[in-house]
Design goal:
Blueprint: H1 5-25, H2 28-61, H3 64-104
Helix pairs in contact: 2-3
Length: about 110
Amino acid sequence: MASNPRNNANKKLKHHRNHDSDDFEGNPEAWATLDKNFKQVQSVLDRNRALIQQVNENHQSKIADNMVKNVALIQELNGNISKVVSLYSDMSSNFSSAFHQHHSNGHTRDD
């Protein structure tokens, strides 16, 4: 009976995924950095959630002083959005550098 081409493709894909996984698992420093950065991002996003809730409550109250407070809250939100963009950019750059450094040190899929 002839071998099924789909099964061969699946075996190659599984083999490829296993090699990629091994490459990343072999770099605990890169994973630790990513984990730290994701926690920072989540902290900022949690703060944004609280800020948005406060802005909504202030807006619904229709109290002039609360509306004035919203200006500062929205400014903080804008700053936090920029911070999240920066953190994701740094994560991408760090991850890419770690990946390329790991591969340039002789850890390739063909090993």
